[in-house]
Amino acid sequence: MPPSFNPYQRAKIHVTEKRGQLQRFFYGAGNLVVFAGRFFKEVVKPPYEWREILYQCYLVGYKSTFLIGLTSFIMGVVLTIQTRPSMAEFGAISLIPGMISVSVVREIGPVITAIICCGKIGSRMGAELGAMKVTEQIDAMEVSAINPFHYLVVTRTLATTLMIPLLAILADAIAMYGGFLAMNIHDTMTLRHFFVGALGRLDFIDILPAIIKTFFFGFVVGLIGCYNGYQARRGTESVGLSANAAVVASSVAVFIIDMLAAQITDLL
Q1: Confidence class of residue 1 from pLDDT cuts 50, 70 and 90?
Q2: What are the CA-CA distances from residue 66 to residues 69, 88, 163, 196, 204 (Å)?
Q3: Cβ-Cβ contacts under 8 Å for 131 (sequence gap 6 or more)
Q4: Which of 8, 103, 185, 214 suits 225 as a labelling partner, its CA being 20 to 30 A distant?
């Protein structure tokens, strides 16, 4: 039978567990900062793995195009269908293209793209590097006088930093086209009229911060995915844990960066 504890002992055990979780969180955050510092140190050191960077850009960008395009198209259609009844009550049907463009470009497009990449790309990097860590392939690269951090981490993080902004721009365009098709379910509007109304509502302050924050989204997706793969322990179970931790941590980081970007944009 399990040992019985009085309420004081149970409370003490609970406090100890919470303290251990808090310590692990701060240790992990500190290790991630050190990992990021090593990335900035290694990224400027030759040799530059251009072929591997291009290959990772292909995996991150081209391989994710269909999923991003499909999701953003559905997002634009649903956003238009859901908002049209409310706008029709006020006779503001003509304002729907501008509402869609501002919503998609400023917030929905970049965040949804980043979250999809967290699940698809971050988990792949965490599992891939975790498997290499567990099977000692990374140690073998070090023995062979190859810098595994430069070859594995720098190339993948640069690829996500460069490609996720392009995927977000593609998602914005496809989402607005989906909104155009949804508008023509009940109304008749030409493509030119729709995009003139959509782009006319966008200001410089809407576009630039949205593009800038996608670079930070891409950076944290790649860095956190590689970091969790590098932290894999012995055993195959740690590979799955690394992939899961990469998705969760990068998703939280994306929302935190988005919140900070919204605050900074509001002050401008």
Answers
A1: very low
A2: 5, 33, 14, 26, 29
A3: 137, 232, 239
A4: 103
Q: Where do we find the tokens 């979780």? A: 21
Contact indicator for 117, 221 with CB cutoff of 8 Å: yes
According to the model, what pLDDT value does residue 12 have? 54
Q: Quote the pTM value.
A: 0.88
- Measured CA distances, 14 to 3, 19, 26, 27, 28 (Å): 16, 9, 19, 20, 21
Q: Which amino acid is at 250?
A: S
Task: Pick the range with the lowest mean pLDDT from 79-83, 143-147, 164-168, 217-221.
Answer: 143-147
Structure tokens at 44: 């400027």
- The amino acid sitting at 183 is M
* Number of other CB atoms surrounding residue 262 within 10 Å: 14
Of 6, 31, 10, nearest to 226 by C-alpha is: 31
Distance CA 191, CA 242 (A): 45
What number is the average pLDDT over the span 179-202?
Answer: 88
50: closest CA among 185, 192, 136, 159? 159
Asked if residue 125 lies in contact with residue 226, where contact means CB atoms within 8 angstroms, the answer is yes
How do residues 9-46 score in pLDDT, each as one tens digit? 555 555 555 566 677 777 878 888 999 999 999 998 88
Contact 99, 87 (CB under 8 A): yes
Kindly report the length of the chain. 268
User: 209-266: per-residue pLDDT in tens?
Assistant: 999 999 999 999 999 999 998 888 777 778 888 889 999 999 999 999 999 999 988 8
Closest-CA residue to 119 (of 127, 130, 108): 127
The letter for the amino acid at 34 is: V
